[in-house]
UniProtKB/TrEMBL annotation:
Keywords: Hydrolase, Magnesium, Metal-binding, RNA-binding
InterPro entries given in the database record: NA-bd_OB-fold, RNA-bd_AU-1/RNase_E/G, RNase_E/G
Pfam families, per the entry: RNase_E_G (PF10150)
Gene Ontology MF annotations: hydrolase activity; metal ion binding; RNA binding; RNA nuclease activity
Cellular component terms (Gene Ontology): cytoplasm
RNA-binding protein AU-1/Ribonuclease E/G domain segment(s): 118-391
Protein name, as recorded: Ribonuclease E/G
Cofactor or coenzyme needed: Mg(2+)
Length: 410
């Protein structure tokens, strides 16, 4: 597979487009300014203070900045690193502890934080609070077993190690070198943390467009095209430091007469990805409606007459639309970064054989998503249930997101 990345700065936002075989498959969007009070990036580490405890939901609210109270699962208290303890219980109001942002703020809600601090590299993650040695399931089993055996000497009671998918095509020693670097970062943070004041930011995550490049799988990557000179300089500096062998992938595109968004039609694709309706080649279409609790995707036959003619013709037409809808739904889920619970309402079919064929094809398409996506089941009403891991805000929220003043929770 041939991969390419486009990065452009426009409308006071930085957008990263991921292409596979010439098609844009993901769009990440972030404001140009991601610094200052009220800006909290995924991965930032703070000394927070317990503001409130709500036992009936097993949660606490931890303040990481004056007036910014974040949800915290009390199960994390078992492995928490406290800089100040106010009582004998596992977690007490007034306790100060190290927390990391594990989920971004959504609309008027503050971020979610965890006490299980992660130090993420390109090939491995070092995890405080989870001491197991793990290897990505997307790495072949023989290589996974080899990694687990060779990393057994790293087993300890302070932190664990997870080998990422990116490690499957690099020498083992390169992964070991990165793990050792992450261990040094881990030791430096926890050795000095008790001298830091409450609300201190112990570790700032890099800008989201740098994280995108750090996390992306480089196999088949042909070029990374950057449409802004300032961004190019920043990214070039990062590559020279962290990925010197990949620095030649960077290309600056600065033709003002024909900008990047015109060359690759990024503006048009972005606008379509923000619309409620996505058209199918058969004449049908999807209606994609996110709600607070879940996202609903409704399949409509549109111009395709699935009920015309004989019953067998109707079934055949429905199957044709449904198969194309499955392909487009899988594409749109990734493109729009939809997550959580997703319900797809396909056109009803009478044949159980066709239904199972559709589910099998849909499951295969969803498995290609680099973010964990699972087809759970089909309900008695014929609704297909999907879950997709939440990593960042969906595209429609990124594009329309403006952080409101956050008031104290509970």
């Amino acid at each position: 597979m041939e991969r390419k990345i486009l990065i452009e700065k426009r409308d006071n936002r930085i957008r990263t487009y991921f292409l596979e075989d010439g098609d844009i498959v993901e769009i990440h969007s972030a404001p140009v300014e991601e610094t200052g009070a009220g800006c909290h990036r995924l991965g930032d580490v703070y000394v927070g203070k317990v503001k409130n405890i709500v036992p009936n939901i097993g949660a606490a609210f931890i303040e990481i900045e004056k007036g910014v109270n974040c949800y915290y699962d009390m199960k994390d208290a078992k492995t928490a690193f406290f800089t100040h303890k106010s009582g004998q219980k596992a977690l007490c109001i007034g306790d100060e502890l190290v927390v990391q942002i594990s989920r971004q703020a959504i609309k008027s809600k503050a971020p979610t934080v965890t006490g299980n601090i992660s130090f993420t590299g390109r090939y491995a993650v070092l995890t405080h609070g989870n001491t197991r040695i793990g290897v990505s399931s997307k790495i072949p089993k023989s290589l996974r077993d080899n990694y687990k055996e060779q990393l057994s000497s790293f087993q300890n009671d302070r932190y664990g190690i997870i080998v990422r998918t990116n490690a499957r095509d690099v020498p083992f020693q390169e992964v070991i070198n990165e793990i050792n670097s992450l261990r040094e970062e881990y030791d430096a943070l926890f050795e000095n943390v008790c001298t830091r004041k409450c609300f201190s930011c112990l570790k700032s995550a890099p800008p989201s467009y740098i994280l995108d490049l750090k996390n992306v799988y480089m196999d088949g990557m042909k070029e990374i095209v950057i449409g802004d000179k300032g961004l190019y300089t920043r990214i070039q500096s990062y590559f020279r430091s962290e990925l010197p062998d990949k620095a030649d992938l960077l290309k600056l595109y600065d033709d003002p007469s024909f900008p990047l968004d015109k060359l690759y039609s990024t503006q048009t694709i972005l606008e379509k990805a923000l619309k409620e309706r996505a058209w199918l080649k058969t004449g049908g279409y999807l209606v994609i409606q996110p709600t607070e609790a879940l996202t609903v995707i409704d399949v409509n036959s549109g111009k395709t007459a699935v009920r015309a003619g004989s019953r067998s013709g109707s079934e055949e037409g429905a199957m044709k639309v449904n198969l194309e809808a499955a392909r487009e739904a899988a594409k749109q889920i990734r493109l729009r970064n939809l997550s959580g619970i997703i319900i797809v309402d396909f056109i009803n079919m009478d044949s159980e054989e066709n239904t199972q064929r559709l589910l099998s094809e849909f499951r295969f398409l969803l498995a290609k998503d680099p973010i964990q996506t699972s087809l759970v089941d089909i309900t008695p009403l014929g609704l297909v249930e999907i879950t997709r891991k939440k990593v960042r805000r969906p595209l429609y929220e990124e594009e329309n997101y403006h952080l409101q003043p956050l008031t104290e929770a509970l």
